[in-house]
Amino acid sequence: MSLAEVKGVLFDLDGTLADTAPDLVQALNFSLSDVGIAAKPLKDMRSAASHGSFALVDAAIPGADDALRTQVQQRLLAHYQRINGDHCQLFDGIAPLLDWLELCRVPFGVITNKPARFTRPLLHKLKLSSRMPVMISGDSTRYPKPHTAPMLLGAQQLQCRPQQILYLGDAERDLLAAQAAGMLGGVALWGYLGEADTPDAWPAYAQFNSPSSLHTALRQALAK
Q1: Closest to 192 in 3D by CA, of 61, 57, 56
Q2: In sequence order, which residues have a C-beta less than 8 Å from that of residue 18 and are 6 or more positions away?
Q3: Which of 24, 181, 192, 218 has its CB surrounded by the most CB atoms within 10 Å?
């Protein structure tokens, strides 16, 4: 498999397609304030933003008991539903990449573990929902990533064989899911990787420093 064989491109959402951390961390801080805990800086919470609401809570209040964890997590989700997309932007270089993929008639979409009640409104706010044949959320199939179920559903909706799909993500589970489904996996190094992450050990076809470097690699490969 190689980039020259790619017929479709799928993205993880948080930390790969879009910079959702500002909204997520603001929702976290609202929830912390609700229970009398000081706000946390965005820069300290950013690497947890790809890993779900409980990961954000655990990064903010490590060692908290289960009752407090659950209380803060539930409040976080409620606040996030209200502010979802307010401060989110596509990462620099994503918009021209998507425009180019459309020009080349290469379909693209999203497979995320974010629940659909957040995914679809966010993609609509980013004006992407009408451009994507694939918008798979964490609850679209019985099992989320790293299971193959959402990946294979994405391939079906994209009308491509898994071997013809490049999947981009910024977490190990993304690359494990891509490998298990038979897709080309690409590490989005511009995403929410933390100090403990070891992308060199993830089962990826390639690593990309920026959306622009991904764009260049695809353009060169598909021009051959």
Answers
A1: 56
A2: 88, 89, 90, 91, 94, 122, 126
A3: 24
Q: Which regions of the chain are under pLDDT 70?
A: 224
Q: Which residue has the tokens 């390639």?
A: 206
Name the catalytic one among 12, 19, 170, 174. Answer: 12
pLDDT of 48: 94
Q: What is the pLDDT of residue 57?
A: 97
> 30: exposed, middle or buried (C-beta count within 10 Å: 0-12, 13-18, 19+)?
middle
Q: What is the pLDDT of residue 224?
A: 66
The pTM of this model reads 0.95
User: Beta strand 89-90 with 18-19: parallel, antiparallel or unpaired?
Assistant: antiparallel
DSSP 183: P
12 classed as catalytic: yes
Residue 137: phi and psi, rounded to 5, are: -105, 175
Q: Residue 18 and residue 173: Cα distance in Å, rounded? A: 18
What's the pLDDT at 222?
86
Question: Mind listing the pLDDT tens digit for each residue in 94-139?
Answer: 999 999 999 999 999 999 999 999 999 999 999 999 999 999 999 9
Burial zone of 4 (CB within 10 Å; 0-12 exposed, 13-18 middle, 19+ buried)? exposed
What residues does 11 pair with on adjacent strands?
Answer: 110, 168
Cβ distance 211 to 30 under 8 Å? no
Beta bridge partners of 185: 167
Task: Using the Cα atoms of residue 158, residue 168, residue 142 and residue 69 in order, give the sign of their dihedral.
Answer: negative
